[in-house]
Amino acid sequence: MDNTLETLYQVVLDRKARPQEGSYTCYLFDKGLDKILKKVGEECAETIIAAKNDVPADTVGEISDLIYHLMVMMAEKEIPLEDVLAELDRRARKIGNLKQMKQVDKES
Questions:
Q1: 3-state secondary structure string, 25-43?
Q2: Nearest one of 94, 76, 85, 66 to 27, comparing CA atoms
Q3: What CATH number corresponds to the domain at position 43?
Q4: Contact predicate 61/50, CB 8 Å
Q5: 27-55 burial: b if 16+ Cβ within 10 Å, else e
Q6: What is the tens place of the pLDDT at every residue in 69-85?
Q7: What is the pLDDT of residues 8-22, one digit of tens each?
Q8: pTM above 0.70, yes or no
Q9: Contact present, 16 and 31 (Cβ < 8 Å)
């Protein structure tokens, strides 16, 4: 399995532990949670727009930006990547929850 996500998350954690001048990641940590969450929201909106505009390269870039900013948020909130990957793995193994998902869709 490719370990790109693990590698990126380790870089983010390293920047938090050992700030480096000129690092965008360190800038985000320095500005705090509000700035980090603002960037997550911006990147989420940009991902939606790129997907709607049907430009695959733009969509890939925006998804990458969103994942990166989510990792910064995770590091700020001390959420281990392993926890997220384990939850995704658990969900990937789950079968037969279509009825539950339809109910969630109706409620949102």
A1: HHHHHHHCHHHHHHHHHHH
A2: 76
A3: 1.10.287.1080
A4: yes
A5: ebbeeeeeebeebbeebeebbeebeeeee
A6: 999 999 999 999 999 99
A7: 999 999 999 999 999
A8: yes
A9: no
State the average pLDDT for the chain: 92
**Four-CA torsion 4, 29, 64, 42, nearest 10 degrees:** 160
Joined together, the tokens standing for residue 58 give 């733009």
Question: Per 3-state DSSP, what percentage of the chain is helix, strand, and coil (rounded to 5)?
Answer: 80, 0, 20
Cα–Cα distance, 42 to 98 (Å, whole number): 30
> What is the number of structural domains in the chain?
1
Domain that holds residue 69: 4-107
Structure tokens at 33: 């949670």
